[in-house]
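Onboarding guide, step 5: your first structure request.
Type a short instruction followed by the sequence, for example:

Predict the 3D structure of this protein.
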Amino acid sequence: MDNPLLQRKQFCVDVIHPNRPNVSKNDLRERIAKDSKLNIKDPQCVILFGFKTAFGGGRSTGFGLIYNNIAAVKKYEQKYRLVRFGIEPKVERGGRRAKKELKNRKKKVRGKEKSKVTGGKKKK
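The system replies with structure tokens like these:
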């Protein structure tokens, strides 16, 4: 199915894989990019997700999206999928304990000093 508003094609994928437990998504991405009639130059424009293996194995069904370009992928695709496929780096945030310590340090000061405690930008 063509979706011009989101600059992509949407489709269901049926994979038959006898004698194998499953097929990796990266292998499928490259195969779809190579075999597709759409002349996909970059396999990163292919996003695959939601695969279910049939009972007994040997067959899987999933969902796929082929974007027109990598800019459309970054604009419309969900962030966790971009991280999962290695298109964007994972953002490391502080842990729960660090957040609590920062909150309690901010409670002890007033006004402009709060920005110094949080480590905000220094003005020139």
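Each response can be followed by summary notes, for example: The radius of gyration is 22 Å.
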